[in-house]
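Problem 12. The chain below contains 474 residues. Write out its predicted structure in token notation.
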Amino acid sequence: MRKPLLVFVLAVASLVAWAPEARSQTETDARQMFEEGNTYFQRAMRSSGRARQAALREALNLYHRALRITRSRSVLFNVAMCYELLERYDDAFAYFSEYLAFEDLSDADRAEAEAQMQRVRPNVALVQVASTPEGATIFVDRTDLSPRGVTPAVVAISPGTHTVILTLENHENAETVVDAVRGETREVEVALEAHPARVRFETDPPGAELRLDTESGPVIGTAPASVEVPAGSHRVYAVLGDRFGREAFEAPPGGDIAVAVRLGAPTTPGVVSVSVDAVGAVVSVDGRNVGRAPAGELRLTPGQHRITVNAGDEYETWSETIDVTPGDQVALEIHLAPAEPRRRFGVWPNVGIVLAGLLAVASGATGGWALSLHSDFNDIEEACDAALGGDPSACAPGTALRDEALALEDRIRPLAIATDVLWGTAVVLGVTSFALLILNREVPDSTSVRIGVAPTPGGAVASIGVGGMVVMAP
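Solution.
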């Protein structure tokens, strides 16, 4: 009888909690329906069989009438309990889920509802539904039935194959098929396609050609124009003769917005001058060589351009995107950082010196071990010499002292050889590496061959380079 008792206590507590909320006639009507539903619910708890079922259904009818006026959490909980007692577990799970969505539940109320859901869970097939973007309304099989929640959400459905349908304002409906199994949770994730937005473009002055997202793309209209564009972030480019303008905007799904673009004053393209502190540096604009620094005045169309300066292997390449507006006069003074010098033997002399040091340490360790064992051998010899004066048989072949001495000789011999080899290798490697380190000077890079032609005002410049850079006259 523990479950009915909990429901009764919660129902009475809900009456008290609802009292201050009743400020309008409709809320008063809802509270009255809730109280009448509680009366039938208590009657069901005192009945059994068909009488109990009839009382629970009558309580449900009154609760649902109250919910049509206001989605009270007290009513939601009692509706869920009625469905559980009627063994309509899918509906019970749905109303417990809606109840738990209230953020201001007390810890005790939330714990009780979660415990009820755990008792219901083994009797339902669950589907965890997610969507991109979130906030889509969930329907199962038909959109003319009651929705099952809003993504992301876990919904309970009957076992079997079902179609999960998602709807979201200004997005195409999407659906997916799921095989639900009682006592298990399936996961589905659906991407919703946004409706395009209607954008009204205007330019000052009017008549500019419009391009979307890239200034080299196709013309989408002539301002003023109303154009349908995909939802999302965009940039419009407007060109009227030698006047230019651009504007970034956000197109909401299914939205209807206006975007105004102000064109730059009628003038020649922007002028960019480039000076570099490295003689003979090649200047490129948007991947096209335009000459050598100083490049003089580069007349560039309004918009973004990538300037690249390369002065060979002795300097790091400089590259940066600049924004040119009509009539701009931009002076670029570029300092090229020296490139990391390449040395004849690279880092190998340094590596050799480190290895030589490690080999010397290893040689010292093995030598010290051999000396320690040799000291033990000398102690045995002294013991044998002392024994010869009294008992000559103490160091005879086959005795313990003689066997120990022979064992020490077998261990000392390879240690002595290893010490000599390690020390000799360390000396040779150290001397060689030190000599290479002295000779490890910077060397020019003669492994690359470069041939290029750069257009210049009034002609062209041809260049050929092997390692360094040799300039040929136009």
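Discussion. The CA atoms of residues 344 and 440 lie 5 Å apart. Students who got a different answer should revisit the alignment rule from Section 12.3.
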